[in-house]
Amino acid sequence: MSVSVEITIRLNPHAKYLPTDSDAICCPYDMEGFTVMNAMITAHRFDHDHFQRSARWHEIPKFRAISHGHEKPFVITTTKYVPWADREISPAKEIMRIANIERCESLCITHFAYIVGEFPEKYFTACVRQIIRAPNYKNLKKVVVDVDSNYASAANNLYEKIRCQESIKKHIMNMIEMFKFLKKIKITKVSPANRQLG
Question: Does pTM surpass 0.85?
């Protein structure tokens, strides 16, 4: 199946954080206690106070993705709770759009890197589907989705299932378009009397 970007599932040790070599990294804005964002700031040696001052940007509950333009990797923060299943918002596409605008070729999404409780199958599925269905971007070519290593099997199995479903769906849509095209073609029957003998 041809998709707009390369997708990689990266396993992250539970309650730890592995620095990324992606051009951009996206995490939920949450700086209270152990969070992926705090771990990311420490791992990449960013200015903690700088991000602390950005809290006001995420005070409203409505989903927002904010770009911070001074760090490498480039940092994008979102509201703490992301409505992955909201088809109108499509958070993953919005995050990817920002990374592309900032001329990033690769993006790491960390929202599933630290999970407490059950694996969020519904939200993971929505996120991956949005990435697969995203349009082609001029700059962005690769998306890495970090997943808590405690849920490695669940994440990998679900990803393969989603990938196969999307591939089948795309094949069916292509077949429908082909049949529509064939129906438009006018077929003219030639009688034997009008045929020219070679």
Answer: no
